[in-house]
Amino acid sequence: MEHFYLTLLLLFVSLVTLSLFIIFYKHWSKYTSPNLPPGKSGLPILGETIQFLSTGWKGHPEKFIFDRMARYSSQVFKTHIFGEPAAVFCGPVGNKFLFSNENKLVTPWWPDSVNKVFPSSTQTSPQEESKKMRKLLPQFMKPEALQRYIAIMDTIAQRHFSSGWENKEEVLVFPLAKRYTFWLACRLFISVEDPNHVDQFADPFNLLASGIISLPIDLPGTPFHKAIKASNFIRKELLKIIKQRKVDLAERKATATEDILSRMLLTSDENGQFMNELDIADKILGLLVGGHDTASASCTFIVKYLAELPHIYDGVYREQMEISKSKSPGELLNWDDIQKMRYSWNVACEVLRLAPPLQGAFREAMNDFIFNGFSIPKGWKLYWSANSTHKNSLYFPEPEKFDPARFEGNGPAPYTFVPFGGGPRMCPGKEYARLEILVFMHNLVKRFKWEKILPDEKIVVNPMPSPAKGLPVRLYPHKA
Questions:
Q1: What's the pLDDT tens digit per position in 400-440?
Q2: Poorest-pLDDT segment among 49-58, 268-277, 322-331, 442-451
Q3: Distance in angstroms (rounded) separating the CA atoms of residues 396 and 465
Q4: Most distant CA pair in the chain, distance
Q5: pTM of the model
Q6: What SS3 string covers the chain?
Q7: 151: pLDDT strictly greater than 50
Q8: Beta partners for 80?
């Protein structure tokens, strides 16, 4: 009997040893190609994922990048994150290379957690869906379409500040900013503007956003599991709205130019094919996330910096009050007003530099290629980081100093300021984001001055920057 148990024990130890050998071999075999960028691969499976995420949790996501730029290379280094061998491209040269070679040498890539939270209803790859969206969006986001949105944005901003800010001594900024940008997205993308209807979506969207880039552990109670459930719920609700809109369009109760949903239903591809309902639900879901989450972080940090820097606040206030005084009572903002907000937009850009909502993004190598003298194997994941330039003194002297003057004249050098990507990969929603941010700033500063209640509130980046306690502020309404 003892011999039997000893045999079982030896068999178990052998299996464990063999399994560990296979895991370690598979991990390190990905790094055997000659002339790879310098760097390290970390532990099997985990790689350096914990280090990559933890610097963000501590509020300093640039630390992961700058530590390795100093140790290995200022242009490109290798690592292993989200279960994949990866090369991190740094600086304007790396940014330009990735943005300019999309669908030539590189293609968009997302961790499995993103693909599971946003499963495509079509049989095409996420990369193909990304290409479709980039062809589709410019039709909806071109200047003549956006000009019509400004009055709607101003109306919703006024309602938002009336219900959420006015007659209050203290407010939590981050949840309110999320409510504002989500309300706008619901109205402009799917014509949902009733606050109660918007609120039905808001909580699931917050769960979805917080679980997109999380450890892909699909167990009850985990952020990833909650995100998948929230995504399924929102998709079902969107399908109800899409079905009703098709009826309304057929009965001429809705128009083709009403919102992005109507345009999607009535727009065919080059083969005359129209998108099906599930496909539209997927795309609207992605737009709602992209259209509200990044802008809400930007609006929140604008409030933070204007509280900390009274002289910057005064400059924004003067500019916005000049515009306000030029308007007749009840007159809404228009395109010409937005063009006058030059200083305010420079301030917003400096906020986007110091606290970029999108820290970076992934690509995948479509073929083997050489970058900066190093070999990048086919299938490797490639990451660009906004912070590799935004907080780099080579491109922005005194990078921690808040200085809107950086954006005067020709502004920063190409591919150094990349909160919206750059070149051919410039975010098609950039102008939409500019409008919603400036409308927010106008309605905020003409009503209030404010101060932070927690002067040293911690900033957490997961995956977007946010104040750990939601940025509570004390409001001081302007006297009429």
A1: 999 999 999 989 999 999 998 887 667 778 888 999 999 99
A2: 268-277
A3: 20
A4: 96
A5: 0.88
A6: CHHHHHHHHHHHHHHHHHHHHHHHHHHHHCCCCCCCCCECCCECCCECHHHHHHHHHCCCCHHHHHHHHHHCCCCEEEEEECCEEEEEECHHHHHHHHHHCECCCEEECCCHHHHHHCCCCCCCCHHHHHHHHHHHHHHHHCHHHHHHHHHHHHHHHHHHHHHHCCCCCEEEHHHHHHHHHHHHHHHHHHCCCCHHHHHHHHHHHHHHHHHCCCCCCCCCCCHHHHHHHHHHHHHHHHHHHHHHHHHHHHCCCCCCCCCHHHHHHHCECCCCCECCHHHHHHHHHHHHHHHHHHHHHHHHHHHHHHHHCHHHHHHHHHHHHHHHHCCCCCCCCCHHHHHCCHHHHHHHHHHHHHCCCCCEEEEEECCCEEECCEEECCCCEEEEECHHHHCCCCCCCCCCCCCHHHHCCCCCCCCCCCECECHHHCCCCHHHHHHHHHHHHHHHHCCEEEEECCCCCCEEECCCEEECCCCEEEEEECCC
A7: yes
A8: 85
As given in the structure block, the two tokens for residue 444 are 């905020």
